[in-house]
Amino acid sequence: MIIGLTGGIGSGKTTVANYFANLSIDIVDADIVAREVVEPGTMGLTKITDHFGEQVLKTDGSLNREKLRQIVFTDNSEKQWLNQLLHPLIRTEIFTQLSKAKSPYKLLVAPLLIENGLDAQVDNVLVVDITKEQQLERTLKRDNSTPEVINNIISAQVSREERLAKADDVIDNSSANLTYVEQQVHKLHKKYLSLAAS
């Protein structure tokens, strides 16, 4: 059984995922997989370098994400090219890792679970929910970013309403009370264990 964990930027997905990990649940994180498929020596990085040239590499041969981001966010056709290359690679690697997971149920952590249609590939959608104002406030505290950049990211993700409409389960993280979040995780853990057993 696969639980898809999602939520907008700054909602606390990592915190929630860590609580599940503490309960010995195997986790596959789409963001980590996205980095793994472009590590030096991978087909992903080779194709990116062939297409964009050496300018997208750091001196150590790893991908210069900032440079690549500058290119693709100013040119939609380049962004589409990159997505067409990476999305299938990421998806394949995600499901390879999930198939190797040994826990009674597994967690797929994906910020863009709904946007990328991965919600159709999981048994339950679990949304970590906070308000848009809290997303902005918490992300500003966490990242060295500007309100404009964060608001652009929020706008690029599905709306809070759409996300909640797709949710089978919701963790309320609006109070930032970690004990309360952990209690919600424990309750869902029991539910998922019994679902997985049936």
Automatic annotation (TrEMBL):
Presence of the UniProt keyword Cell membrane in the record: no
GO MF annotation: an example: dephospho-CoA kinase activity
Reactions that this protein is recorded to catalyse: 3'-dephospho-CoA + ATP = ADP + CoA + H(+)
SUPFAM superfamilies (alphabetical): P-loop containing nucleoside triphosphate hydrolases
Listed InterPro entries: Depp_CoAkinase, P-loop_NTPase
Record: residues binding ATP: G10, S11, G12, K13, T14, T15
Enzyme class: transferase
Protein name, per record: Dephospho-CoA kinase
Organism per entry: Thalassotalea euphylliae
Gene that this sequence comes from: coaE
